[in-house]
Every structure is written in structure tokens, then in C-alpha cells.
Fold:
Amino acid sequence: MADPKACNKKLEGKVAIITGGASGIGEATVHLFVDIGARAIVIADIQDEKGKELAASSRFRCTCTYVHCDITKEQDVELLVQSTIQLFGRLDIMFCNAGVMSKSLQTILDFDLSLYERLFAINVGGVAAGIKHAGLAMVKANTKGSIICTASIAASVGSDRHTDYVCRKTRCWL
Structure:
């Protein structure tokens, strides 16, 4: 059986970026990374109020900061990675978690391509930008880090509704 104290220090000294970190899975991951010893966490999101409130939580035993980042803009992601390294001296973990699901129950016959393109930019383009810029930074610094991307079972199971979401999430599995 694993030593529980050892598990609590699994991320000791590590610096992480969590996109989509202000709510949902991202927020839960912020709490988890704090609990297992991360030194610093950068919450990257467009939900400014939630992100700032979470970063300011007195519960955290590490440095937690919020950065407004629109992952559909590659320059925002590049600046996010650069500013994290400038502030904390390193980047060990990039969790590409930001994503959205369409609000409508579209079938393939109802597809709204303008909505699809916007959500594709978030769910696929944002992930690609995160992988690219975190990867470049980690290679340059010779860091043996981790890049984690949120996917969805919808990519392999499918759905007769949320067709645009299923199509986009399939791209994350490739």
C-alpha cells in the first residue's frame, strides 16, 4: 500500500498551468494540485471573477495566481506560458482543460457551422496551442514535465445530439 504522506507530496516543488481552471474540472484540479503539494498554480481562464476569487482563496498552501487567457488566441497561450516561467522560473505541468459544450441539442442535420467553428477553436485549437507552447518551453528548459489534455468519452461513444461537441472531442483523441 502506498504511503499517504508520499502521495500528498507528489507535486512538491512543481509549477502548473490549468486552462479552464476557474470552474468545473479545472477548479477541482486546482484543489487537487494544492492538496498534493504543487508549489505554484496558474489558473488560466476567461471567467475573470471566478478565477480571481479562486486564486485568492486563503485555503491554498501554495502560490496561486489567475491570468486571463483566451485559448482561441495563440498569442494569449504563448504569453501565458512565458509569463508563468518568468514569474516562477519553470513550468512542470500544463493541463489543457478549457473547453465548452454547445448549448443546443444539434443533430448533424441541424448543424450550425458558425457555432461549430467557434467551439472547435476552443476545444481543439486551444489544446493544440497549449501543447505547442508548453512543449516548446519544456524542451528549451530540458524539463521532464507533463502535458495533460482533457478528452471526453463522447469521442468514442458518440451521440445523436450534441453532434458538434462529439466531432470536436474526437479531434482531441487523435
In short: The chain has one domain: 4-173. Residues 113-140 form the longest helix (28 residues).
